[in-house]
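pinging the channel bc i need a second pair of eyes. not urgent but kinda urgent?? the chain im working w is below, pasted from the shared doc
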Amino acid sequence: MSFSLYFDGSSKSNPGLAGAGAVLYDENHNEIWCISKKVGDKETNNYAEYCGLIFGLEECLQRLQHIKHLVVKGDSLLVIKQMKGEYKVKSENLLPLYKKAKELQLQINVSSVNIDFIHVYRNENKRADELSTNF
């Protein structure tokens, strides 16, 4: 089965009060899981974006028996390009989060699940955006 994971992060004042959201859809685009969580009082938007991605990947790891293909979508070009290896991670603040996300990706890949990372525009990421701002 093919699943879609959308993630997002928000930070008021950047850095500031930050939240993350993620939502998982099955192959029929039915929402099967979501999370909305505060991730800090003085964090950046990019930090929050990575948190949303990590929350989603952790959930996917718990559902591996059902997933054969995972499409991860987010409106953060930075996070998507870093996860695809197209950008280096230069921020010391983001490096531990990036390493955690890559570790989760590897654990999912070891289970023969193919993962694609795709950048989408904000208007295609409304549910995850809503979750990241309404924690």
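so The beta strands are 2-12, 16-25, 31-43, 69-74, 114-119. and The chain has one domain: 2-133. — does that match what u expected or am i reading it wrong
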